[in-house]
TrEMBL record:
GO terms for cellular component: plasma membrane. It comes from the Bacteria. Keywords: Cell membrane, Membrane, Transmembrane, Transmembrane helix, Transport. This is MFS transporter. PROSITE patterns: MFS. InterPro entries: MFS, MFS_dom, MFS_trans_sf. It is a multi-pass membrane protein. Residues 11-454 form the Major facilitator superfamily (MFS) profile domain. It comes from Paraburkholderia pallida. Its main location: membrane.
Length: 465
């Protein structure tokens, strides 16, 4: 049973179930990190590896998602990805140690790498430029319920039952998404138009994975000080080799020529930095509230809930802002306001009222949503149909890498500061410096967004004029 021809709304809603599952998984796991650490008998800071392993797997497998979708059929790959993600979630719920948890998180990441980018490919391929913003909204609005429900649901499940239920919850969602996708998504054809760039895929995967291992080795604080430097240097060399190879290959694993498109370049690079800071914040807030302020898991989750509410409420208003102001002004305003929120987060203390913290995180959610809605709308606006598959893979890879980079960089910052203090566990001051690091990352986006012309991105909202 297929949706009516060109009715992108039905496809967007079906694909949003998969995005919802991935989003709710991310927010629930972050809330449960301190509880998982206590159960496994390790430092909460070291459990950044659980998040990073998942994001690295997403990053490594995303570059080939477009080729796999073209070769075997986008709908078929999308269905298999949902099955993989769901079964891996069950594996995470059954683990007895950290190595097992990391292994199943990697498998989860492999499923997610094919699930969301391929879903976006199914949606965006074949729709008109003027429908890009509407399609992005129909896709992301239901999916935003994941981050909204994730914090309170994660806090409730962890407090009343066990952190393991934060993974079991994916099973009914995965089954629902699988059934809806099978029945309602349009059939897609296999189009093996080009060979897989195996060399490029291996170089990109190795470069990204080793770079993240380098950052992760810093925040563990258990290796010789020289080792992280050596690993990060190796990662940098591999990144250069991967870039050099992909620029010279006719059909590369990652098509860097897409960066010649101004709107896509800004959405990928500056938008990626914003995503890094956003995920870093989501990692730091539960640490600050549960570890430094001694909030209960449920209380912490209700505070984090504020950011999700802000994101959900702001999303429909993005079109209102874009009708009245240039894209570059909207994006720069979102970055500056988010930097202010992060700066205030660094100043938080136990003496702050819970209402004040709630409102601060609410405003952070507003800024994040304004940026995400705008960059999501302009990213593919000027990408030609022939490069849409490569663009979705590129965008997915850059986003997941920057998510991992954001968590790894602030975890490393907090770990280094804690080690310099001579303490094995972070305190409020250490975590506050992690927030300062996120401010720096966000401010890097402002000059990049300002490079856009007044006309860039205007096509995505022309139907509203």
């Amino acid at each position: 049973m297929n949706p009516p021809e060109n009715d992108f709304r039905i496809s967007a809603l079906v694909i949003s179930v998969a995005l919802f599952m991935q989003n709710i998984d991310g927010t629930i796991v972050t809330i449960a990190i301190p509880s998982i650490a206590r159960d496994l008998g390790i430092s909460a800071l070291h459990l950044s590896s659980v998040i990073i392993a998942y994001l690295v797997a997403l990053t490594v497998f995303t570059p080939i998602s477009g080729w796999v979708a073209d070769r075997f059929g986008a709908k078929r790959v999308f269905l298999l990805a949902i099955i993989t993600f769901t079964l891996a979630s069950a594996g995470c719920a059954l683990i007895r140690g950290l190595p097992e948890l990391i292994s199943f998180r990697i498998l989860q990441g492999a499923g997610g790498a094919m699930m969301v980018p391929v879903g976006r490919l199914i949606l965006f391929r074949g729709i008109d430029r003027e429908d890009m913003l509407a399609a992005s909204t129909w896709l992301t609005m239901p999916a935003l319920l994941g981050p909204i429900l994730g914090p309170p649901l994660g806090g409730f499940l962890t407090s009343e039952w066990s952190w393991r239920w934060t993974f079991w919850i994916n099973l009914p969602i995965g089954i629902l998404g699988l059934v809806c996708a099978w029945r309602f998504l349009p059939e897609t054809q296999c189009t093996p138009s080009k060979r897989l760039d195996l060399t490029g895929s291996v170089l990109v995967a190795a470069a990204l994975a080793i770079s993240m291992i380098g950052f992760d080795s810093v925040d563990r604080g258990a290796t010789h000080p020289v080792m992280p430097i050596l690993v990060l240097s190796l990662g940098a060399v591999l990144c250069w080799l991967a870039w050099r190879h992909c620029r010279r290959t006719p059909h590369p694993a990652v098509d860097f020529s897409l960066l010649d498109i101004p709107t896509f370049k800004v959405a990928s690079i500056a938008g990626g930095c914003f995503i890094a800071a956003s995920d870093a914040m989501l990692f730091l807030v539960p640490l600050m509230l549960q570890v430094a302020f001694r909030y209960s898991v449920l209380s912490s989750s209700m505070m984090t809930f504020a950011s999700s509410i802000g994101s959900f409420c702001m999303r429909p208003m993005a079109a209102f802002a874009l009708r009245r102001y240039p894209v570059r002004s909207v994006l720069t305003t979102a970055s500056c306001s988010f930097a202010v929120v992060l700066s205030l987060c660094a100043l938080m203390s136990k003496d702050w009222s819970r209402v004040g913290i709630f409102f601060l995180l609410l405003m952070g959610g507003v800024s994040r949503s304004l940026n995400f809605a705008t960059t999501g709308a302009i990213a593919f606006a000027d990408v030609p149909e022939s490069k849409m598959s490569a663009a979705t893979s590129f965008q997915g890879t850059s986003q997941k890498f920057m998510k991992a980079f954001g968590v790894a960089s602030v975890a490393a910052t907090v770990q280094i500061v804690s080690m310099l203090r001579g303490s094995p566990h972070p305190d409020q001051r250490d975590i506050a410096l992690g927030f300062v690091a996120t401010v720096v990352i966000v401010m890097l986006t402002c000059p990049m967004f300002a490079q856009l012309s007044r006309e860039d991105g205007s096509g995505v909202t022309s139907q509203m004029e």
